[in-house]
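Dear all,

This email documents one entry for the complex benchmark we are building for the journal club exercise. For each entry we list the sequence lines for every component of the assembly. Then comes the predicted three-dimensional structure of the complex as a token string, followed by one or two observations. Please use this as the template for your own entries, and keep the labels exactly as they appear.
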Amino acid sequence: MKTISEKIFSRASGTDAHANDFVIADVDYAMAHDGTSVLAVKAFREMGVSKVWDAGKIIIPFDHLVPASTDAAAVLQKDIREWIKEQNISHFYEGGEGICHQVLPERGFALPGKLIIGADSHSCTYGAFGAFGTGVGATDMAEIFAAGKLWFRVPETIKMTVDGTLGKGVYAKDLTLYLIGKTGIAGATYKAVEFYGEAITALSVSGRMTLCNMAIEMGAKAGIVPPDEKTSDFLKNRSQAEFEPVYADTEASYCKEVVYHADDIEPQIACPHEVDNVVPVGKVAGTPLDQAFLGTCTNGRLEDLAVAADILKGKTVKIRTIAAPASRTVLLEALESGVFETLVRAGVSFITPGCGPCLGAHQGIIAEGENCISTANRNFKGRMGKGGNVYLGSPASVAAAALKGEIVDPREFI
Amino acid sequence: MEKKFRGNVWAFGNDIDTDVIIPGKYLRTTDMQVFADHAMEGIAPDFAKNVKKGDIIVAGDNFGCGSSREQAPLALKYAGVSCVIAKYFARIFFRNAINVGLLIIEADAEAADGDQVEVDLENNLVRVFPKGRPDDVREYPTENLPDFLLEILNDGGLVAHRKKKMAQ
């Protein structure tokens, strides 16, 4: 009787794995981006290994600081490109192709039942497809580059059920922030979370990615939605690889089971400087803002930009507003659907598909004392600029706030 | 690794995240000194200037939560921190610290800035020597790391560990 995580680790380690066992597991796909590959490649070289374990299973999208915005970044990126060539890495995605956590699903690497390890904490996003995705640091990634395997402790699992229906103007992001607020920033540390219930099933693939993306913000090692028809529809024609969906046994053992009701959830805002500092939007309505940011691996997909476009159509934003599509594919979808033009006419500045200002390195850093509302996943102190304050919300909350210049209940605009 | 050592305490609270340990704008280099120069900048701007070799961080729950950036344990290591003691660590920081050879210890220790802490690996204890209160020494048991992780730490991190294994 096993959870999804126990089954995936059993298969990947060739053992009968249970929660809390230490296993050595074979990694199906390994991902590093321009930020983390630098130290991973440095460690790999220092290890004295000449060839990576499988050049076809390593995926490197450049997304964090693209196009390079400093001399140092340009030099480091050049070095990584040379290493990629030297190692014949097949899946390299140049800056502008998109954020790693968007590119992997789009290109068919986020597959049910797979063990996908990324050198990025938001690698839990792949759980939206029934994979076990989790993040590691650069040296662990170097070890995977060298050996294709790594030690893991099989996590215990929390079963989180959300029944009912989300109300009008309430989105996957609000549900996600609500669950983080209830669980706490460390409430799921070292654990996996399996999501069930009609509110979860009703989420689009994009919404499930928003949810699983932020599993790490409750400390979780992975957040997993069991695959269904929506998953198969998304995956169609994206991958040649074989995969087998994995489901938990009905009598699987969970360390905790919790049930929430979608109907109770209002639009949510995570206030500075912790992601679990979550309140219904009404509590902070009127907070003055200096910047709004739409995008990231959490909320940078067409569905997200379209919600913002619906609110901004024919109007003009009151504060500087930045949009970063999660990928080139999303950018094209936004162009073809008219969403791009609507947003640009409303005064939104588009930047290169990628991480943008989310981690405070470029393209929209905020000044000391400034307030930014963002669709991203982190609002830690100094995250988007020293002394700045970051409020997290749904694309609708960000668009409505951009119009008004202050935090406002987005339902007033829908 | 020394089995018993003592250091001055830098005390921090719960949920110390990687963005305050080393802000995102300093990540694009392989110069460890840059990470050290900005260690803990987001929460203790004077830390990097005043930290001394051998100092020890004592923190609460969930130390190192947030991003996967290995620059976080590297910043502390190259700033001279000999050990981080916390009630527990966020999982990626936990792995990264061991992989770069930064000693981490899970213990329910309470300490304040200016106190001293003795780490006693042989007896699985940490002892807090509060500043100005020599009679108030407190002992806290520590969680043991599994042997294979201790071996990686003793080898000085995962790169050195792998090199040793390959040489054998």
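Observations: The CA atoms of residues 47 and 157 of chain B lie 25 Å apart. The two ends of chain B are 21 Å apart (CA to CA).
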